[in-house]
Fold:
Amino acid sequence: MSEYWNDVIGGSKSLLIGLSITAREFFKPVVTEQYPWVVPEMTERFRGHIELIKDEKTGKPKCIVCGMCMRGCPSGCISLAGKKPEGEKKKALTKYHLDFTTCSLCGTCIESCNFGAIQFSKDYNLASTRKEDYIFDLLKRLEEQG
Amino acid sequence: MSIVEETRIALLEMFPEFAAADAAARAAADKIDDEMETMIDEMDSIEPATEGDAPAGGDDEVEAAEPAEAATEPVPEPEEPEEEGPRENGVMLTDHAARGTDIDVLCAPDQVVQAARIMDESGFFLEAITGVDWIKDDKLEVIYDYNQYGQEQCRVVVRTLIPRSEPEIPTISDVMPSANWHERETHDFYGIKFIGHPHLIPILLPEDADFHPLLKDFKP
Amino acid sequence: MTVPIECRQDETFVLNLGPQHPATHGVLRVKLTLDGEYIVEAEPVLGYIHRMHEKMAEDRNFAQFMPNTARMDYLHALAFNHGYCLVVERAAGIEVPERAEYIRVITVELNRLISHILWWAAFLLDLGGFTPLLYAFDDREQVLDLLERVTGSRLTYCYFRFGGVYNDIDDEFITGTYAFIKRLRSRMPTQYHALVTGNIILQKRLKGIGIITEEQSRRYGCTGPVARGSGINYDIRKNEPYSVYPEFDFDVPVYHECDSMARYMVRMDEMEQSMRIIEQALDKLPDGPVKAKVPKILKPAEGDYWASVETARGNLGHRLVCDGKKNPYKLKLRSPTFCNLSCFAEVSEGMLLADALAFMGSLDLVIPEIDR
Structure:
């Protein structure tokens, strides 16, 4: 019987303690981010989808079309092509597609690139209802960035 | 005695031909140890004696030490497998730092239940069961990993080879209930039939799956 | 309370718990045969999120399998990274620089901390308490921000590499981690223990429920907090030390009550111990490189290797069989929850349905890790 009363008294006390803690929290400032109004800034190492890097001197992509990223990718989501323009020694990039539907953002492509030609972007607003929106043409993206 | 040594002796029960040799070797080693001990005791007792007796005691030591070395040598690895050729059944000690296991047992397929029983009695738990498809040798390997909760490390791996055309092996789920799910999983992936298993239906694959994806000749 | 009942077969009925049920934390289905509210038989049905990672490992080379490891246990992804790295490093004989080992320990322990915090939140949600979830997510968010700063991702990390880690930690991460630990230490007695652990409703629902005896725990191969809640002092970090864990001073919490409350207390105490390890590692953090020179394509010698790590849920083992080629011949994953869940059928017999849910929550199930 005494156990029963212990439970009742001790239990009520524990509930009151809990209520006092939640009541105190109630008056503390809001900790959630007010997302659409406050846009978070991505950290330096944030892993968005990959993007090409422009060579500042020539204004063209740094990529030399060696295909290491394509071979290193675990899910085979990179497809690229290049051809030699007339009168030049190096290959130029003509196509660089990223199939973001299978990309797992592991960074193997960036590690396997010996020329520092790709990096993670900081884009995160990528919601879409169509699958085709996730086949990124990174070359076009680079041109659009100017 | 360390737990690795204890377990090794317990497992040798499965191989009577090695067990007899091993027991004899150990008895010899123990005997030598005892002799050494008594001798050391004698030496201790001799030491305070007169100097004239000392050389005689020294001679005794030389004579006794030689057979001791000869007898202890074969004890640590009585069935060391040779590099070439398939490994013979038996118990082998492995280097924990290099392999992650301490004792490696290769046995006949019908001995796995006995092995499970020995492990159960020694207080081990079953860590995993898995298969390996050696398609070139036309064999399937079934691997049982045992471990124990003690502070000293001792991981035992029991492996056996079964023919690929007729993958059947007795179940150990009545000895170790945890084997129930592991065996179902292995059956899913390799098609190995665990004879006597109470409920051998797919666990991870769909319930109507008739394929075994981890076989090397599996085509999706 | 578990009351043994005499059941008449003609009065039982079958209830499917899941596969889409909030209390199963994913897609686990439990086929329950009930007599009234008492469980006569329970049969977990797995495989709803099975992806055959082991086959994927055979098709890819060693480095390419790395992102897969994080997708099994999404709550303690770094431990899976670590386990896979350990077994490949053991096979290929790669030495890891000391600083990298320290960074591994710090990040893995931070990850363990938030895994336990999220378990705590979700477990209480199962029991009907919503408020603790909000406090837990507040704390978890801090760690996610810290780990995002270092690893670049928030949940499915791919941070470890063979012979080290992807990149170094910075000062902001170190000060941030110290600040977080200070903050969590101040919140632990109130938001965690006073609000929840001392609560009479929680105690009544967990004490004496779901008893896994020491012998049952061994026969079913339970590890991690489930085994430690059954009075077994077994922690891979102590029993089979890997990485730089022997250099730290920490305790392994063990409770002998064998019930859900014991497992709850083990995890709460483990959070304290993780904080201790992180602090010591940050204090002692040596300088040096964070990645050893490792060839891009690994070809370990023939043979088979085993490596175990302690994840938040127990003993994660990798068995790697190599045949001297650039991809694994076979990779077996011994997932801890798979074994922990296998005792569910036996233990839940004769339990009330509501108690069985509390018991299931105390096992800390992560379904993608069971199904692999």
